[in-house]
Specification:
alpha/beta, FAD/NAD(P)-binding domain, protoporphyrinogen ix oxidase, domain 3, Polyamine Oxidase, Chain A, domain 2, 3 domains, seven-stranded mixed β-sheet, 16 helices, 21 strands, globular
Length: 444
């Protein structure tokens, strides 16, 4: 029986551990934290259910649905409320609903008449020639600058907490690039892709009754007892002919070492240099693999009495374009999206602060951030009185950007694996941060 060590108990590490276990390996997962799941953490505080990482999973492909079905977790999922289909952006200081069909596109004020006309010209725009175009250049070229300002910019801040100018199209949205290259148009390609046999008839926006942490917890429970070692930090990985020596340190500072046939490293890019890599061929490539930008992000949770908010919160939430010059990236109407997120007659708002746009705001003191978010909500949502519930979670290094250095990281991982058989690298800095990408992550 082959022995496999997985370093890192986040979603990507767990899915690889599960696959290795299914193939007959004896698996050990070393996780430095107190629980598995990485950023996928959920806490119930004072009757409010908070997700500290991703709040939803967008289920579009049959491949991902099949993985979740095989894991036995899909049957536990809950669907987003129908109201969550409505989404807003801020334009000229007020919330404007985004169109959800052609008639609402014509009446919505999210773009000017000229902006809409430019958007409708997309099928007639020639294919791009740059292989590593930025997302900003792609949107501006195909959809127009106004669409970039009021759709692309806030949308990207909502997904990656980043500017579209920083993101690489083939790594952030490879599907969009493929639609253009294959069909000559994103709009034409989207229509034709509905016939894709791997595409679900309808996209499902899902979570779980106790929050997104149920997903990694369920995968953890699929592994044998005692195969996950929590609060175990990996200090050293040493290549020994066709074996691997792994040295760890527990929370009590005690050290241990184990010999494995194979090592799968799934820890975040910014933690790779904390390990002493000994005896590796092409060891210098670890620095390239670790070179991923992460911007800080603060998640701010406010609970209100329903009667103290004038906006009906009849949607998923709102995003803020940079041109609006506000101090928040956007807010989710968490208690509208899924049931059980707030006590009766109360609502939960989850607001994102910082990212690439304004990283310095995450360093403010808690009370200053709370007051700033409250003021933004008073202006945009008509909140009155102070929130009855407040909580802040900070991620100093939140999301690895799928920027133009991602290809360098992938090439470094492949070269290291070629030169060091039995060593495998994976993680969101290689496969991309979206949860479906992590669930489908191949061993790069």
């Amino acid at each position: 029986m082959k022995t496999t060590c997985v370093i890192g108990g986040g979603l990507t590490g767990l899915i690889h551990a599960w696959r290795a276990h299914k193939s007959g390996d004896s698996v050990t997962v070393f996780e430095s934290g107190e629980c598995t799941g990485g950023v996928l953490q959920s806490k119930n505080l004072d009757g409010y259910l908070l997700d500290y990482g991703a709040n939803t999973l967008n289920l579009r492909s049959k491949d991902v649905a099949d993985i979740m079905e095989e894991l036995g977790i899909l049957g536990h999922a809950i669907e987003a409320n129908q109201e969550a289909n409505l989404r807003f952006i801020v334009r000229d200081g007020r919330l404007v609903s985004l169109p959800h069909d052609f008639s609402s596109f014509l009446t919505s004020s999210f773009l000017s008449p000229l902006g809409k006309l430019r958007l409708l010209c997309e099928p007639f725009i020639a294919k791009g020639k740059k292989k590593d175009e930025t997302v900003a250049d792609f949107i501006s070229r195909r959809l127009g600058k106004e669409a970039l300002t009021y759709a692309g910019n806030p949308f990207l801040s909502g997904i990656y907490a980043a500017k579209p100018e920083s993101l690489s199209l083939p790594h952030a949205f490879p599907g969009l690039q493929e639609l253009e290259q294959v069909h000559g148009s994103v709009f034409k390609g989207m229509i034709k892709s509905k016939k894709n046999p791997n595409r679900l008839p309808k996209t499902r926006l899902i979570s779980f009754p106790q929050g997104m942490q149920e997903l990694p917890s369920h995968i953890s429970n699929q592994l044998p007892d005692n195969s996950i070692r929590l609060q175990s930090k990996v200090l050293k990985i040493e290549k020994r002919e066709n074996k691997w020596r792994v040295v760890t340190q527990g929370d009590d500072s005690s050290k241990g070492e184990v010999i494995f046939d194979r090592v799968i490293c799934s820890i975040p890019a910014h933690q790779l240099m904390s390990i002493d890599w000994n005896g590796l061929h092409k060891k210098e490539l670890i620095e390239h693999l670790a070179d991923a930008k992460h911007y800080p992000l603060a998640l701010v949770y406010h609970g209100y009495e329903k009667e103290n908010i004038s906006h009906p919160l009849n949607g998923f939430g709102f995003l803020v374009p940079a041109v609006e010059k506000r101090k928040i990236l956007g807010t989710l109407f968490s208690s509208t999206i899924f049931p059980g997120r707030a006590p009766k007659n109360k609502v939960l708002l989850t607001t994102f602060v910082g990212g690439e746009r304004q990283p310095e705001l995450t360093e403010w003191e808690d009370e200053k951030i709370h007051n700033m978010v409250k003021d933004e909500h008073t202006d945009l949502l008509g909140t009155s009185k102070n929130p009855s519930f407040k909580k802040i979670i900070r991620w100093p290094k939140a999301i690895p950007l799928p920027d133009q250095s991602m290809q360098t990281r992938k090439q470094a991982a492949l070269k290291l694996e070629e030169q060091n058989p039995g060593l495998i690298f994976t993680g969101s800095h290689l496969c991309g941060p979206p949860l479906p990408s992590c669930l489908q992550a191949d061993m790069v």
